[in-house]
Design brief:
The complex is a heterodimer of chains A (147) and B (147). With 147 residues, chain A is α+β, with helices and mostly antiparallel strands. Chain A has helices at 5-9, 19-25, 105-114, 116-137, and strands at 30-34, 39-41, 49-55, 58-61, 67-70, 76-77, 91-94, 98-104. Chain B has 2 domains: 4-58; 76-146, Arc Repressor Mutant, subunit A (Orthogonal Bundle), CATH 1.10.10. In chain B, helix 4 packs across helix 6 (112-121). Classes of the chains: A alpha+beta (147), B mainly alpha (147).
């Protein structure tokens, strides 16, 4: 799978980045091919990376049986890795074959440290997702809004 | 008997040669191991990725093994029929999506994830805004009528 400028700029979380900032981000994005039924994250496990959807369809679900699905390029999985307590709050499985960008949290945090402007732009987008997901966890909003 | 004569008589030259050979062989082996050590360290540092890739290979093989006993028709309507029955067997009109997939797996329906995704896209399985899903009987009826 090839990740280039064009691909990255189409992803919502990176839309506001300058070409120089995208150059900085590219090395921490690892393209991963996923297959139908493959579990990407498991609730309760230490959150070490988060994923940005490039293609495919995914189900995020909780121990109580609730779930929502994600179908759009740029949707994020595993946000708990960037917002404490760094344990996944949900599980996620691929409903179809697809591609994601895996971002190890350590590399992400290092990037944030070195580039504060870039950090604040990405964090702003991540915070928005976290806000929506927390609302879903509390049962006040439909997570499928994102689908 | 003294000096070189004694050395030759007691196989001293051969023993010395064997010693040199053993030491040099050991040194060459050691230097080769050290020169390849970085590869081992790379594997260790990226062990998660390697494990994941290995598991993907495994998953692919499993898929190939499962393929011959496909039970679900490629026909979407047939899949819809099967999942309609499954949702009925869950009894509660508002069901858990991961539970439905688990049930589909148990009854040996192939590609349950992808099929559920298709049914969501076709709006036969609809989110209830609280993290659970219901079967849209009206949409299902329309599909059957078109048959």
């Amino acid at each position: 799978m090839h990740i280039d400028f064009q691909n990255i700029q189409e992803i919502d979380i990176f839309k506001d980045l300058t070409p120089e900032e995208i150059e900085e981000v590219l090395p921490v994005l690892h393209p991963v091919r996923v297959f139908e039924g493959e579990r990407l994250i498991r609730e309760g496990e230490t959150a070490q990376k988060f994923f940005i959807i490039v293609s495919g369809n995914y189900m995020v679900y909780f121990k109580d049986g609730r779930a929502f699905t994600l179908h759009n390029k740029g949707d994020m999985l595993g946000w708990s890795s960037v917002a404490g307590p760094f344990t996944y709050h949900e599980s996620a499985v691929a409903l179809t074959d697809g591609e994601v960008l895996s971002m190890p949290v350590e590399e992400f945090l290092l990037l944030m440290k070195g580039h504060s402007d870039l950090g604040s732009k990405i964090t702003k987008k991540v915070t928005e997702t976290v806000r929506q997901r927390i609302a879903f966890i509390k049962g006040t909003q439909n997570g499928n809004d994102e689908s | 008997m003294k000096g070189f004569e004694a050395i030759a008589f007691f196989n001293g030259w051969r023993i010395a040669g064997a010693g040199v050979f053993i030491v040099f062989t050991a040194l060459v082996t050691l230097s080769f191991v050290i020169s390849q050590l970085h590869k081992l360290l790379t594997v260790w540092e990226n062990k998660d990725e390697y494990i994941k890739n290995a598991m993907q290979l495994f998953a692919k093989k499993e898929k190939v093994a499962v393929h011959p006993k496909l039970r679900v028709s490629k026909n979407f309507n047939e899949s819809a029929r099967q999942f309609n029955l499954l949702t009925k067997s869950l009894r509660d009109p508002f069901f858990s999506l991961p539970r439905l997939i688990l049930l589909a797996k148990k009854v040996d329906i192939s590609h349950p994830h992808a099929t559920v995704n298709k049914l969501i896209q076709a709006k036969l399985i609809v989110p209830d805004d609280k993290g659970f899903y219901y079967w849209d009987h009206t949409a299902y009826k329309n599909i059957l009528e078109k048959e």
